[in-house]
Every structure is written in structure tokens, then in C-alpha cells.
Amino acid sequence: MREIFVYSYRLIYEIREDHVCILAFIHGARDFNRWLKSKDVSI
Predict the structure, then answer these.
(1) Prediction pTM value
(2) Residues 12, 30: Cα–Cα separation, whole Å
(3) How far is residue 32's CA from residue 10's CA, in Å, rounded to a whole number?
(4) Cβ–Cβ < 8 Å for 10, 28
(5) What confidence category does residue 4 fall into, taking pLDDT thresholds of 50, 70 and 90?
(6) Beta strands, E only, 1-43
(7) Of all residues in the chain, what percent are helix, strand and coil, respectively (each to 5)?
(8) What are 9-39's pLDDT values in tens digits?
(9) Which distant-in-sequence residues (6+ apart) come within 8 Å of 27 by Cβ?
(10) What integer pLDDT is reported at residue 31 of this predicted model?
């Protein structure tokens, strides 16, 4: 799992064998930890 910042957004993605899977595209001002808990996802 990787992440990059695109302007004011956080792009979280995963590189797989034959494609890239975008997991989330979140505005940078958002509380990331709260968002993560609301999705019940572990990174």
C-alpha cells in the first residue's frame, strides 16, 4: 500500500501484479484517522 499527495488530496493505492488499485482519494483537510476508523480499515 502506498500513498501520494495530489494537490490537497491524499491518494492511497496498491500496486498489484497487473494493475493499480485505488483504495481512497481523501481531501487533505479531513481527519484521516477518524475516516480510517469509520471505514474499519487497517493500513
Answers:
(1) 0.68
(2) 14
(3) 9
(4) yes
(5) very high
(6) 2-6, 9-15, 20-27
(7) 20, 45, 35
(8) 999 999 999 999 998 898 888 777 777 777 7
(9) 8, 9, 10
(10) 76
Closest-CA residue to 25 (of 41, 4, 10): 10
List, in order, residues 6 or more apart from 36 with CB less than 8 Å away.
43
**Domains of the chain by residue range:** 2-39
Give the cell for residue 9.
488530496
Q: Round to the nearest angstrom and report the end-to-end CA distance of the chain.
A: 8
The answer to whether residues 13 and 21 touch, using CB atoms and an 8 Å cutoff, is yes
Residue length of the chain: 43
